[in-house]
Amino acid sequence: MKGRSAVVSKYVRMLLRGSRWDQYERYLRAIGESGYTPISLEDWFQGHEEFPDRVVLLRHDVDTDPSSAMRMSEIEHSLGLRSTFYFRWCTFDLPTIRRIRENGSHVGFHYETLTHFAIRHNLRRPEQVTPKVISECRSQLAAEIDAFDRLTGECRSVAAHGDKRAKLIDHDNSVLLRDQDHRDYGAEFSADDRNLRAQISCWVSDGDMVNTFWMGDKPLLAALTEAHPLILFNTHPHHWRSGRGVGMKRGHENARFLLRHPLSWERGKPEAFARQRYLS
C-alpha cells in the first residue's frame, strides 16, 4: 500500500508542476553571458577544434511529447542557436522533426532496440541476453537507423535510450554499439562515444521537477561559474512543460494502446511496439 501511495503522490505532484519555458530561455542566455558557446553535437563532431575553449553541447532527449521539443526548438531558434534532438519511435513526429530542421537544429535516433527486444520476448534475466540476441539486435538497429534516415532525411547521430528493463537484464541499449564502428550501422557518430564522454568535463541534466530540479554532476548555473572547457547540457523537453499537459498526453496514448492491444499490455509496451509503424 505504501508503494502505491508513493506512486499516486508522485503523479499528483507531476500534474501540479508548472511550465518553465521562461527559465529555459534564461538558462540559454546565461550560457552566452558566461562566455560559453552553445552548439549542437553535430557541430562539435564536425569541427570542435574551431570552437573556443568553453563550449556547451545542447542535447535534447525527446522521450515523450514531441510538441515540447517543438517549443524548445522555437526558443533556441529565436536566439540563433542550434542543438541536437534525439527522437524515439514512440515520439517520432515528422512535422515536428521537419520544423526543428528548418530551425537549423539536428535530429538523431534515440534507439532502444535491445530493451524493446527484451520486452517483446519477455527477457528478464541477464543470462537471457545471449550473443545471438546481441547479434540479432545489432542487425535490427542497423535497419532502424536506415528507416529513420529515410523518413527524416537525416540521421547523422544516435543515442541510446535508458530503460527500466535494462536493470532486469543487466544490459543497456548502448552495448549494441560498444566497440563497434558506427558507420557500419549508418551513423556518423554516437552521443555515447567514449572519446566524447572522456572530453566532457561536466554533465548537466534536467530533473522532472517532481523529485529533483537538476540531475547529473551539478546545476547548470553552478557549472558555468567553474570554467569547465566542455559542458554537456542534456535536457528532456517534456520536463519543461506543465505537468497537466504531459500527464493528459501520456494517459491518452496508453489508453489508445490498451484499446487496440488489450492482450499485449505490459508496462513499456506501447513504446516497444511503436517501431512497427515505421519498419516493414
Explain how this protein is built.
The protein has 280 residues and is of the alpha/beta class. It is 44% helix and 15% strand. It has 12 helices and 9 strands. It has helices spanning 2-15, 21-33, 41-47, 66-78, 94-102, 113-120, 131-152, 165-169, 194-199, 220-224, 243-260, 269-272, and strands spanning 37-39, 55-62, 84-87, 106-111, 157-160, 189-190, 202-206, 214-216, 230-235. Strands 1, 2, 3, 4, 5, 6, 7, 8 and 9 form a 9-stranded mixed sheet that branches. The longest helix is centred in the middle third of the chain and has 22 residues, at 131-152. The protein starts with a helix and ends in an 8-residue tail after the last helix. The model is unreliable at 6-12 and 261-267 (pLDDT under 50).
